[in-house]
Specification:
Helix content: 25-40%
CATH class of the largest domain: Alpha Beta
Number of domains: 2
Number of helices: 9
Distance between the termini: 57 Å
Number of strands: 18
Radius of gyration: 29 Å
Strand order of the largest sheet: 11-6-5-13-16-17
Order of helices and strands: HHEEEEEHHEEEEEEHEHEEEHEHEHE
C-alpha cells in the first residue's frame, strides 16, 4: 500500500520531466520555424498576401509532422518595415494525462525588420578599363546589381543608390560650384570642352581621407588640366576635343581624364540606369582609388555637397560602399590629376614609386575612417595580378567575405550578383 502511494509522485515527476522536455523541444522548434518564415517572407515577398503564403510554406517545412505537437497556421502582420509572425503548438500530455492534465498550448513570435539601405558604387573608369571590354562588363554587372536591388517594390521604397565613377579625379558636375573656391557659374559647362566640367582636386592631407565639411580652409579646388608644351605630347589645346573610341574617351583640353559625373543618392532607378550606361574609360590621369573612395564616403555622408544621405547611425538604415578597381594606384609624371602634377610634390614626393605607396596608405586610411563611421565596405579587384594590391583591397573590406577577386568578365558579373544577394539579406534581419 505504501509502495502504491509512493508511485504516484514518482509517476507525476517522470511525466512532468518528459512533458517539459517535449514542450521545450516544441517551443525551440516553433521559434526556429517562425524565424525562418519571417525572414523568407521579408526577403522574397512583395505584397502582404505573398508574404503570408511564403511564411506558411517555410513554417510547414521547418515544423514537420514528426515533431511533437500540432502547430497552428502562422499569422503574419506587416506594420511599416516590421514583419511579425506568430504561431502556436498544441501539445498533448503523456503521463501527466493520468492526473487530469489537459492539452497545453505553446506560443511564440518572431519579428523581422526590413531595413533601409544607402549604397555608393565607387567604380574604376580609368583608361585601362577599355581593354577586353572591361568597362562594358562593369556596366553589365553594375546594372544587374541595380536591377536586383530595385526588383521588389516593398524593399526599394527604403533604398537609395549613388554612382561614383573615378579616374584621375572625380566629377561633381554643377554640385561642385557650391564647394569649390573661386569658381563662378560662368566658368562651368557640361558641354563646352574648354570650360570647367566639375572635376576637383583632392584636398590637403588629412582632409583628403576624411568626411570634413567644406569651409574653414577645407574647400576644394577645380581640376583644370593646363595646355602643355608639345614636349609633354599629351594635352595641348586649344582646340579642345573629345573622341569616343573602343569604349574610351580620348580628350584634349582642361577636362582630360574628368569622368562622367557623380550621381548622388537617389531612389530613381531610371536615373541610375542612365548613369551606369554613360560610364566610359577615360584615358590619362592615372588611377586614384583613394580619391574615388573618399567621394563614395561623401555621397553617403549627410554633409555637403551631397545632402541626400541620412545622418549616420539612423535606426533601421545601413550605409554600404562598393569599391571596384582593375589596377594599382598609379601617378605618372605626365598626368595632371587629383594632386595636380607629380613634379609639384603635392603628395610629399616626386617619385611615382613612392607616390603609389602614399596613395595606397591613404586608401587604407579612408577605409578605416569609413568603417569607424559605421559604413559597411565591399571591395572588388578585377583582372588584377598583383598580390600586394589585392591585400590592400581585402583589408579595406569590412571582412574577408566582403572582398572579391574577379578573374574575368563573367566572374565580375557573378561578383556583383553575390553582393546584391548579400545586400538583400542585410536588409531583412531580426
Amino acid at each position: 500500500m505504501l509502495w502504491a502511494l509512493a508511485t504516484v509522485p514518482i509517476v507525476v515527476g517522470v511525466g512532468a520531466a518528459l512533458d517539459l522536455s517535449r514542450a521545450y523541444m516544441a517551443r525551440s522548434r516553433l521559434t526556429f520555424a517562425l524565424d525562418a518564415a519571417g525572414l523568407a517572407a521579408g526577403a522574397a515577398g512583395e505584397t502582404e498576401a505573398e508574404m503570408r503564403t511564403i511564411a506558411e510554406q517555410f513554417f510547414a517545412a521547418n515544423y514537420p509532422e514528426e515533431l511533437p505537437g500540432t502547430p497552428s497556421v502562422p499569422t503574419l502582420t506587416v506594420d511599416g518595415g516590421v514583419i511579425k509572425v506568430t504561431g502556436t503548438v498544441t501539445l498533448e500530455p503523456t503521463l501527466l494525462r493520468l492526473i487530469g492534465q489537459e492539452n497545453f498550448t505553446i506560443a511564440a513570435a518572431a519579428e523581422v525588420l526590413r531595413k533601409g539601405l544607402e549604397v555608393a558604387l565607387v567604380l574604376d573608369n580609368t583608361g585601362s578599363m577599355r581593354s577586353n571590354d572591361k568597362i562594358g562588363a562593369l556596366r553589365t554587372a553594375s546594372q544587374d546589381l541595380i536591377d536586383i536591388l530595385f526588383a521588389k517594390p516593398e524593399l526599394s521604397s527604403k533604398l537609395s543608390v549613388g554612382v561614383v565613377p573615378y579616374a584621375g579625379t572625380v566629377n561633381l558636375d554643377s554640385a561642385g560650384l557650391s564647394i569649390v573656391s573661386g569658381v563662378t557659374p560662368e566658368e562651368f559647362s557640361e558641354t563646352d570642352q574648354e570650360k570647367w566640367k566639375g572635376c576637383v582636386l583632392a584636398r590637403d592631407y588629412p582632409n583628403d581621407v576624411r568626411d570634413t565639411p567644406s569651409g574653414g580652409g577645407a574647400d576644394w579646388s577645380k581640376a583644370f588640366w593646363p595646355s602643355e608644351p608639345l614636349s609633354f605630347n599629351s594635352n595641348t589645346w586649344p582646340p579642345a576635343s573629345i573622341v569616343f573610341a573602343n569604349n574610351a574617351n580620348d580628350v584634349t583640353g582642361p577636362n582630360r581624364a574628368c569622368p562622367t559625373p557623380v550621381t548622388p543618392l537617389t531612389n530613381d532607378k531610371g536615373v541610375l540606369d542612365t548613369a551606369i550606361d554613360a560610364m566610359r574609360a577615360w584615358r590619362g590621369g592615372g588611377t586614384f582609388s583613394n580619391v574615388g573612395m573618399a567621394w563614395g564616403w561623401r555621397v553617403l555622408s549627410p554633409e555637403p555637397p551631397f545632402t541626400n544621405a541620412l545622418p549616420y547611425n539612423t535606426p533601421g538604415f545601413d550605409k554600404v560602399a562598393i569599391l571596384m578597381t582593375d589596377g594599382r594606384n598609379n601617378y605618372s609624371g605626365n598626368d595632371y590629376a587629383a594632386y595636380e602634377y607629380l613634379f609639384q610634390g603635392n603628395l610629399g614626393t616626386t617619385s611615382s614609386f613612392v607616390a603609389r605607396t602614399i596613395l595606397n596608405n591613404r586608401l587604407s586610411e579612408v577605409c578605416v575612417n569609413m568603417k569607424a563611421a559605421g559604413i559597411r565596405i565591399y571591395t572588388i579587384t578585377f583582372l588584377l595580378n598583383d598580390a600586394s594590391t589585392k591585400t590592400i583591397y581585402r583589408n579595406c573590406a569590412s571582412d574577408d567575405d566582403k572582398y572579391f577577386d574577379s578573374g574575368n568578365n563573367a566572374a565580375l558579373q557573378t561578383t556583383f550578383l553575390n553582393i546584391a544577394e548579400q545586400l538583400i539579406n542585410l536588409r531583412v534581419s531580426k
